[in-house]
Amino acid sequence: MKILTVDTSSNCSSVSLSDDATLLGECLLGEDRSNSGRLMDSISSLLQAARLTPDGLDCFAVSLGPGSFTGVRVGIATVKGLALATGKPVVGFSSLAMLAMNLPYSSEQVAPLFDARKGEVYGALYRCGALPDAVVPDTVLSPQDFLALVKHPTIFVGDGAVRYREVIQESLGALAIFPPWHANLPRACAGAVIAREAAREGKFTPLAQLNPTYLRASEAEIAKRKRESV
């Protein structure tokens, strides 16, 4: 099953191309908010290197968030366009579940954290075997409120874990575990693992339901509410 997977939920965007359990190629765009603008170039390069066209794929997959409001919209819009053009199905998945799958078969639970700005994090707690299993579902909280949910040894991963490392260590002490730096980068190929299993079970996401998971209102929505309340 050939799957093109896209993630633009954070500063580090990525695209992967996989065939069943084989990674054909992956493009990581680093920590740059302009990376979503290079998304189609990355997709074209991967397909060209694998000598494939969008029509030759079996399905597409995309992270739905939470994460960057603009980035998530760009990724979903791109995948929707490819799906409409080819008639291929799509799988949507949580960006936090994808990040947690950087550490499959971990002996401890995994806390993927994205920096949500405004003194908050997007976070969750997962047990990661062959697939992620949510212990605490995706949420947005202050670091302190999120850490109050942690009662057992936990591996913290993601840019939120990097930013709030001192806070996490001070709060949890020996319960807090931090992996090597490379595990903090969201990887589309980790999302492809989730998408492959969903596709094998026929659990595709209807395009009408392929929408961003924001967890909180955007700046535009907040501004609109303020205007309407005046």
From TrEMBL:
Domain of life the protein comes from: Bacteria
Segments forming a coiled coil: none
GO cellular component: cytosol
Enzyme class: transferase
Keyword Endoplasmic reticulum: no
Molecular function GO terms recorded: tRNA N(6)-L-threonylcarbamoyladenine synthase activity
Gene name tied to this protein: yeaZ
Keywords for this protein: Acyltransferase, Transferase
Pfam families: TsaD (PF00814)
Name this polypeptide is given: tRNA (Adenosine(37)-N6)-threonylcarbamoyltransferase complex dimerization subunit type 1 TsaB
